[in-house]
Structures are given as structure tokens and as C-alpha cells.
Amino acid sequence: MITVLGVVEEDLVEALVIHASRLGVVHAEHGTQIYGFGDAFEPLVGSIADASFRMLIEQRLASIDSQVRSVRAHLAVPFDINQAATARIPQIQVTITRGVASVLVVAADEDEGRSLFDAFLRDLEAVSAVTGDPDVLTVLQHPSPQEYAQAVTIAKSRFDTGFDKVVLARSMTVQLTHSADPALILRTMADREPFCTRYAQTLDGVRFIGASPELLIRRSGSHFSSQPLAGTASARALVEELIESNKDNAEHRIVVEEIVERLDPFAETLEYPSYPEVMALRSVIHLATRITGTLQDSSTSALDLLAAICPTPAVSGRPIDTARSLIAELEPVDRGFFAGAMGWMDRSGNGAFVLAIRGVFLQGDSLTAIAGAGIVADSDPQAEVAETEMKLRSILDAAAPEASTFLP
User: Fold this and answer.
1) Catalytic position from the list 58, 156, 165, 389
2) Is 165 a known active-site residue?
3) H or E stretch including 220?
4) Domain definitions of the chain by residue range
5) Contacts of 216 (CB under 8 A, 6+ apart)
6) How many CA atoms lie within 13 A of 278 on its CB side?
7) What's the burial of 315, exposed, middle or buried (CB within 10 Å: 0-12/13-18/19+)?
8) How does strand 165-176 pair with strand 317-318?
9) Residue 118 host element (H or E)
10) Cβ(192)–Cβ(140) under 8 Å?
11) Strand, helix or coil at 222?
12) Reading across the β-sheet that carries 229-234, which strands appear in turn?
């Protein structure tokens, strides 16, 4: 396979973003946006916990034009990394930096590449404008606030059995008058949270899109970084209240300690501050810690590091096996790709993956949002209900604004 290069003219960039939001692969960070269309190969399916599957992805990338380093495999990884992840190499890959949209086409030969590029430009010229919000017909919360509070109470009663944190999630499914436009949702998410990473893929016929504030892993050459979030308060709360909260600091410390422990075997150096900082989003504020390091072995890929840390205690708990058993018992939500990972890796092993949160699953005329809260020994059940409602509201305000009025 070879690659053919091209550029999308400025007047088609907006159409490009709309087109990708609706049916492409999206990984859009502040400063760099990456989009993919079609598949150069049949997508690979397997568990990232399996080293042979990770190697298969690397081999597939290596089979493409060795002179081009920007070919990427885009991955959607479920919460349970032992379940099947999807890895796809788009046939047409677009990277936008500083307003320039550079196109890379993976093809059998140059003639095919040029033909695919020309057809892609024609597709962009035919893209329709963004549509408005549909009306809301019904909203279903699962579990109800009362049932969720009861689950938190049960979880708290188990903390004398050898574990110290569990994350429980709840969902809201919204029935709409017609299908929501993914392009409008992602545009609104970008306007509301410009420093979050927007992601999108279609998985088993369901469009999964969102804007994540949490970096799971980034690998660039010999350097890697992670920025776990744990500990949450309303955006209206005082920053000092969150910083001084014993409950939120305990929850955050559990996450940081566990991620550091899992990354340490790969690290030549590993650094992180003694105290967290505060990340301020539109609806909530979080405690955040930036973890950075250098690799012992240059062959360790971004996907190797991802497999080592997922699922993090930020979305599961500690110890992981005990927490997952309690999640299975108390959480009536099928997480699927929620709280998994979305991101990319290139042929050099570089990559970036974010936690798959603050997103919606779009299927037909309905959408589903899922949010969780970290439960520790001194959690207050009603406060945890309120935290999930804050997070659900932040999603619904972008995806289906009318639905957020169903929350207190």
C-alpha cells in the first residue's frame, strides 16, 4: 500500500468537519484535529490486553508506505479491556493544524489514490448544513436517583472488605422526534469545552461521540504523560473547597497512586507533583495531576502503556477485581465503550488516548448519556447523585438541551 498526499482548500474545511462528525473518525484536540474516512483495510478486532493483537496493529501500520509517518490506527477500546476493541486505519486521513487541512490517502497505487482524493473533495462539496436540535419526547433515567443512592449506600457498607474505591455509573436515554445531528453536538461541545478532546466513531451501528477532559496516555518518542482526574465539584463551587476536601483528595490520591504504580515498570524516569491542581470546565471542576515520564525501552508503544493502565481507578476502583465485581452487582448500566478509551497510534508507537467519558451514544431517534461518580468510605449518597446529575447535565446541554430540564 502507498500513500498519496493532498490539501483541502479553506472553503471546504467546515464541510470536512461536518462530514467527519457525522460518519468519520474524529480525534480533535486543541490545536490539532485528526479525521478519518473509510477503511484502508478491514478493521482489526481484538483485546488490547492481548500483546499479539497490539503487535498485529503495529504490523498493519508498518505495511503502509514506510516514508510516511503520519498514518494512524484509530482505536475504540471498551471499559473492559478484555473485550473486543476496534482498530481501523482510515483510507483517507486528514490532519488540521494551524488552519491547514493536509490529506493522506492510503491506496494500492497512485492512480487509485488520486481518484479517491478527487471523489472525497466532491463528497465535501455536497455536504449539507448542520441541522437544529430535535424535540424531546421522553427521558428515562436508569437507575433512578433513589436507586442510585441506595447502590452508593450498599457500596459504602463493603469498604471493610478490603477495597477503598468503586465507581458507579447511571444513564439517561432520551427519545427524540428525529435523529440528532452529530455535527451540531460536536460543534456545541467544542464551543462549550474548547480544551477537551472531541472523539467520534461508529461502533456496531451506534454513533459514539463526546468531548473528554481526561488524558489517559500520550506517548511521543521516549516521553509519555497522563493526566488523571478524580474529585469533582460544581463549577459554582469555590476552588478552595475542592482543594481542601478530604473526600475528594482521598479519591484522587487512590487514582494517582494506582496509575503511577502501573506505569513505573515502563519508566526510566517518572514525575508528578505532590498536590493536585484544579481543572475548570464549564459545568464542573476536577482535581487533576499531570504524570510525566521517559521510557526504559523505546519499543514500548502508546498502546502498551494504555493496556497497562486501563481501566484506571478513575472509572473502576481499587483493587480493580473487587471493584469490577461490585460494579457488576450494583450497576444496571451496560458500559460498553463508555469509560473505555478513544484515540490513535502511529507506526512509530506514538499516540494519544483519552478516557471515553462525557459522550453520547446515538442510535436512530434516541441518544444515551452515561456518567459515574467515585465512591469512597465517606461518600454521601445524595452528593454522589448530584455529581452524576452535574455530569449528565454537562453532556445533555450540548446533545439535547431540552432533556437537561428533566434533571433537578
Assistant:
1) 165
2) yes
3) strand 215-220
4) 2-125, 136-406
5) 226, 306, 309, 310, 312, 341, 343, 353, 354, 355
6) 19
7) buried
8) antiparallel
9) helix 110-125
10) no
11) coil
12) 229-234, 284-288, 277-280
For 136-406, CATH number? 3.60.120.10
Of residues 193, 214, 251, 384, which has the active-site annotation? 214
Q: Which one-letter amino acid corresponds to residue 59?
A: Q
Output the nine-digit C-alpha cell for 81. 479491556
CB-CB contact of 302 with 352 (8 Å): yes
Do the beta carbons of residue 106 and residue 369 sit within 8 Å? Answer: no
Is residue 38 within 8 A of residue 137, CB to CB? The reply is no
> Which spans in 264-314 are helix H?
302-309
- pLDDT, one tens digit for every residue, the chain (408 residues): 888 889 999 999 999 999 999 999 999 998 899 999 999 999 999 999 999 999 999 999 999 976 666 899 999 999 999 999 999 999 999 999 988 999 999 999 999 999 999 999 999 999 999 999 999 999 999 999 999 999 999 999 988 766 789 999 999 999 999 999 999 999 999 999 999 999 999 999 999 999 999 999 999 999 999 999 999 999 888 899 999 999 999 999 999 999 999 999 999 999 999 999 999 999 899 999 999 999 999 999 999 999 999 999 999 999 999 999 999 999 998 899 999 999 999 999 999 999 999 999 999 999 999 999 999 988 999 999 999 999 999 999 999 999 988 887
Q: Based on the residue annotation, tell me whether 214 is a catalytic residue of this protein.
A: yes
SS3 326: helix
Residue 194, classed as helix, strand or coil, is coil
Cα dihedral across residues 344, 83, 60, 220: positive or negative: positive
Give yes or no for a contact between 25 and 35, defined as CB atoms under 8 angstroms apart: yes
Task: Give the position of cell 448544513.
Answer: 129
Q: What is the largest CA-CA distance in the chain?
A: 67
